[in-house]
Design brief:
The complex is a heterodimer of chains A (232) and B (60). Chain A has nine helices and seven strands. Chain A is of the alpha/beta class and 232 residues long. In chain B, 30% of the residues are buried. In chain B, a hairpin with a 4-residue loop joins β2 and β3.
Chain lengths: 232, 60
């Protein structure tokens, strides 16, 4: 498990997302072929409508906005100040500031008391944390008893042919999108970050080992996207 | 940062309580200021309404 003091990856992520903050939303739409919003909607269906929700790696606020539109009060945290500035501007345009608080924080050292939130969400970011077990353990700490974790993430599909096509897509399409956006190296990194990310079944076991119960997952988009949920 | 956030905020290191110091405020929102943990003797800045509660080693 990564020590909180050994944080080279987190610092690298903070700098990487600062560089791509300006084109992040567009990049996601192109890479997901416009499906990212529908995936988020499906993932957030079990989120409580009137509870307090923590959205980690909130980025430009796409998950947080969908949660707020559904009636939740949201606290969004991110490593990158640049991402949060983009998010704040977006909230202002959509007049959703009263529903969402933003702060710069680390998912492995959350600045909240134990048992604060009704739900915790993470969208397309779990593969970028220093330690997945430590992140789920920290989310569990800040959840109230019975609170829910929702994790939406890309995953490697199981079938050999689909897996090969998926790998080809990541290796070719993401760098291409990155080049169009003027950030090729950053998008090559994001494509490679999936290679070492656990398969959906393994991620479920990691969540259970972190002390979460009733862990289930659902695969979307030919098994290339996974929604994991668990309870404290 | 809206002041009501103080009800749930804690030091990212020791998870203890934080003291809020306001330098500039606009309509119940803290624009600039800081959050201080007495136990860790660590001060976390609030810049342009967003508190930076990253652990010291990530606050580059």
């Amino acid at each position: 498990m990564a020590k909180v003091s050994d944080r080279d990856q987190a610092e690298g992520m903070r700098r990487l997302f600062a560089r791509i903050a300006h084109c992040y939303d567009l990049g996601n739409k192109v890479i997901s072929l416009g499906q990212d919003r529908a995936w988020r909607k499906l993932a957030l269906a079990p989120a409580p409508r009137d509870g307090l929700v923590l959205d980690i790696a909130t980025g430009t606020g796409e998950m947080a906005l969908d949660l707020a539109r559904g009636g939740s009060k949201v606290v969004g945290v991110d490593l990158s100040q640049e991402m949060l500035s983009r998010c704040r501007a977006k909230l202002s345009r959509k007049r959703l500031q009263p529903m969402i608080d933003l702060l710069q924080a680390d998912a492995l050292a959350l600045p909240f008391a134990d048992e604060t939130f009704d739900c915790a969400t993470v969208g397309f970011a779990m593969r970028n944390v220093d330690s997945i077990p430590a992140c789920f353990a920290e989310l569990r700490r800040v959840l109230k008893a019975g609170g829910r974790v929702i994790c939406l993430e890309l995953t490697t599909p199981r079938g050999r042919l689909v897996a090969r096509l998926h790998r080809l897509y990541l290796q070719k399409a993401l760098p291409f999108v990155g080049r169009l956006l003027g950030r090729k190296e950053e998008y090559i990194y994001l494509a490679n970050s999936l290679v070492h990310f656990p398969m959906a079944g393994e991620l479920k076991r990691i969540m259970e080992q972190a002390g979460l119960s009733q862990v289930t997952y659902r695969l979307l988009n030919l098994g290339t996207v996974a929604i994991h949920t668990g309870r404290k | 940062m809206k002041k009501h956030l103080m009800e749930i905020l804690a030091c990212p290191l020791c998870k203890g309580s934080l003291d809020l110091a306001v330098d500039e405020e606009r309509e119940e929102e803290v624009v600039t200021g800081s959050l201080y943990c007495q136990k860790c003797d660590e001060r976390y800045p609030i810049v342009d309404t967003i508190p930076n509660l990253l652990p010291p080693e990530l606050r580059g």
